[in-house]
Design goal:
The protein is mainly β. It has one helix spanning about 105-110, and strands spanning about 1-5, 10-15, 20-25, 35-40, 45-50, 60, 70-75, 80-85, 90-100, 120, 125-129.
Length: about 130
């Protein structure tokens, strides 16, 4: 089992930067794929980015590609999401999620919220125009 907890959300101006952190508590932190999702008011939860067990592989939603960077430090049990050039449409509650994603087709499954068993409470990011 694992627990995840996000932090770092705040109000930021458009064009600014922000770093979100996700603390992962587990016996083997490196045994989990970790992803960020976000949910804006009235919208469905959407995939933002994910990082593989060792950090060797990352995936991004098209809307954040080139602006956001996900990274992890298994020794510190931490996953971060560096967000640059923020836009008002990035405003949402950001959630960290973790799962072992064992089995086949993990690269496809990693973008689906339903594949993750462990979720944080979310952290609010508001980008003002």
């Amino acid at each position: 089992q694992a627990q995840v907890a996000e932090s770092g959300g705040t109000l930021v101006q458009a064009g600014g930067s922000l770093k979100l952190s996700c603390a992962v508590s587990a016996l083997n932190v490196g045994g989990y794929v970790v992803a960020w999702f976000r949910q804006a008011p009235g919208e469905e939860r959407e995939f933002v980015a994910c990082i593989s067990w060792t950090g060797a592989t990352t995936f991004y939603a098209d809307s954040v590609e080139g602006r956001f960077t996900i990274s992890r430090d298994n020794g510190k049990a931490m996953v971060t999401l560096q967000m640059n050039d923020l836009k008002p449409e990035d405003t949402a509650v950001y959630y960290c999620a973790a799962d072992t994603l064992s089995g086949i087709n993990w690269t496809t499954r990693s973008r689906r919220a339903g594949e993750y068993d462990y979720w944080g409470q979310g952290t609010q990011v508001t980008v003002s125009s």
